[in-house]
Specification:
4-stranded antiparallel beta sheet, single chain, alpha+beta, extended, 3-stranded antiparallel beta sheet, 14 helices
Length: 567
């Protein structure tokens, strides 16, 4: 009986393996441990008192009693946790408390996570919209603008305008479609847009570097699907001594990437002749770009940027599908025929009495149609209350959570401007732009600048960059040009142009900002602005028009106008 009573709690039987039984056992073990600690403490105190009693009658001189210690500000209870989030009570029974490595998590979840993220991007409207926001805000319609400001020499700080312009012109020529991509399908802008969209969708991107003197400028790129990275199926290629492979990435003892192991074709392509070989090929990391936004130390693969919102997005998509079905049923205005056994005549009517002249059962009605029911038959309508009045609020709440998880403004993701005013839109836009600026800096550092440096080296070695005189730039000046090169990503227009322009002008006049800082925020090259103004002024003077930038100031010796006589 005692054992049976112990296996019950709050009147509920504790079934073996249930969460309630597990919590009960853990709580009982904790209480036993606390009781054992208290008993050991009492025994130690008793032993100390007995030892003091055996010391004999010697006593120390009388001392004044010390003042009583102040009471602690907070009551200390043995066994209580300092962090309630670490409690394992019944309210947190389903909350994970296991810590695993990021790579162990990815080995188990990455294929499924990536497949669901791709479904989100392809088959949902907000997924499609988010992919477009990623491409438009990180890259825009043009790739990051190259700016080269190399000087003539260390002793002469004047800009080498001719050489700088030659590098920028040849870089733009290489970025055209048919030159930068080995397949000829992409321009550099389209290639960059594809890569950032892939990073958001798949969590990473993979590009092969191709160096060949027969190519334009000796350099080209090849975009590869990240599914080509070895995932454990098939044999693995040779691994250098001291290295190990994790998720298809070979790393050394310090955690530095040394190579990636790639299938010869996409593992999901079952077409004849395109099935991948059973062994993965080892490709040195210097021959590929494998980049992702790292979230945790020692991470070797990236995961989709949508990981935090995929579950909620799937719930919302399913809910909307069920709501459409429910609304369709509600709009149908269905009903049922009911029969009465106690109808006059003593027999229940049969379905033959519901048939029309053609012998068909009357199920559909038309506008203005009236039908007489046989005796003992009644009609009960089925009128579901849907769409429900809380449908819109629930959907809006879910979309706001999704937008927060993606670090974008709700009205930008959904196009819903309800309740948006100038102040709220400005705050949301500025916060979102900081998020995009961080991703712009990551993409330039991880891909754009390394591509440019490799292109510049190969272009100088192949003597492909020439000056207007036809003379090629010397390869020994590579370091100078590389250090003087920078990239300016796209910017955004002001939220309130008049107020923002006045604020920028005041900051420049107060020496708090420079003109270049203001133009950089807009994604504009200040040198291009100044050159355009110079060409405009020259053209006006060539056509005999007034100088548009001449300062209209009064002559210093002009006589002041005579004051008017008082009336």
């Amino acid at each position: 009986m005692q054992r049976a009573s112990q296996l019950q709690r709050d009147g509920q039987p504790l079934v073996a393996g249930s969460s309630i039984l597990t919590h009960w056992k853990a709580e009982r073990e904790r209480q036993r441990a606390v009781a054992a600690e208290q008993q050991a403490l009492h025994q130690a105190m008793a032993a100390m008192r007995g030892h003091a009693g055996r010391m004999g009658p010697r006593r120390s001189p009388a001392r004044p009693m010390a003042a009583a210690l102040p009471e602690p500000a907070f009551k200390v209870v043995s066994g209580d946790r300092a962090f309630t989030a670490a409690d394992t009570d019944r309210f947190a029974a389903g909350w994970t408390s296991i810590n695993t490595g990021i790579n162990a998590d990815l080995e188990r979840a990455l294929p499924t996570l990536r497949a669901r993220s791709r479904d989100f991007f392809v088959n949902t409207d907000i997924g499609r919209r988010y992919g477009q926001l990623v491409k438009d805000n990180i890259i825009g319609s043009k790739p990051p603008r190259l700016q080269v400001r190399a000087t003539l020499s260390d002793a002469n700080a004047s800009l080498d305008t001719i050489a700088n312009q030659a590098i920028e012109d040849h870089w733009m020529r290489w970025c055209e479609r048919g030159r930068c991509d080995i397949t000829g399908q992409y321009s550099f802008a389209a290639l960059c847009r594809t890569l950032v969209a892939g990073a958001a969708r798949d969590g990473e991107f993979l590009v092969r570097r191709i160096r060949n003197t027969s190519l334009p400028y000796g350099y080209a790129l090849q975009v590869l699907d990240v599914d080509r990275i070895y995932t454990g199926n098939g044999a693995l290629g040779a691994v250098n001594a001291g290295n190990h492979v994790r998720l298809g990435v070979e790393i050394d003892l310090l955690g530095r990437k040394q190579a990636v192991h790639l299938y010869s074709a996409h593992p999901g392509d079952a077409a004849i002749g395109l099935a991948p070989k059973p062994m993965a090929e080892r490709v040195d990391i210097a021959d590929v770009f494998h980049e992702f936004v790292g979230e945790r130390p020692e991470q070797v693969r990236g995961y989709p940027w949508t990981a935090a919102i995929l579950r909620r997005a799937n719930v919302l998509d399913s809910y909307e599908g069920y709501a459409v079905v429910a609304a369709k049923i509600g709009a149908a205005k269905m009903g049922f025929y009911l029969t009465d056994k106690d109808a006059p005549g003593g027999e229940s009517p049969t379905f033959d009495e519901y048939e029309d002249a053609t012998g068909q059962l009357v199920q559909d009605v038309e506008a203005g149609m009236l039908e007489a029911l046989p005796p003992g038959v009644s009609f009960e309508s089925f009128n579901p209350d849907y769409p429900h009045q809380n449908f819109g609020q629930f959907v809006t709440t879910c979309l706001r959570g999704i937008a927060a998880g993606l670090n974008v403004a709700h009205h930008n993701l959904t196009g819903d401007m309800t309740g948006v005013n100038y102040s709220s839109a400005r705050i949301a836009e500025l916060a979102e732009r900081e998020h995009w600026r961080g991703l712009q800096a990551w993409f330039i550092d991880a891909f754009v600048r390394p591509v440019f440096l490799e292109w510049l080296r190969m272009a100088l070695l192949t003597r492909s960059i020439t000056l207007p005189s036809g003379k090629p730039l010397p390869a020994e000046r590579f370091d100078k040009f590389a250090q003087a090169a920078s990239f300016q990503p796209r910017g955004w227009a002001w939220v309130d142009p008049e107020a923002d322009i006045k604020a920028s002008a005041l900051a420049i006049a107060s020496n708090l900002r420079s003109e270049r800082q203001v133009t950089d925020e807009q994604g504009i090259d200040l040198d291009d602005v100044l050159l355009d103004k110079q060409r405009f002024r020259a053209r006006c003077l060539e056509l005999g028009l007034p100088d548009p930038y001449a300062l209209q100031t009064p002559a210093p010796n002009a006589a002041a106008p005579a004051p008017k006589a008082a009336a």
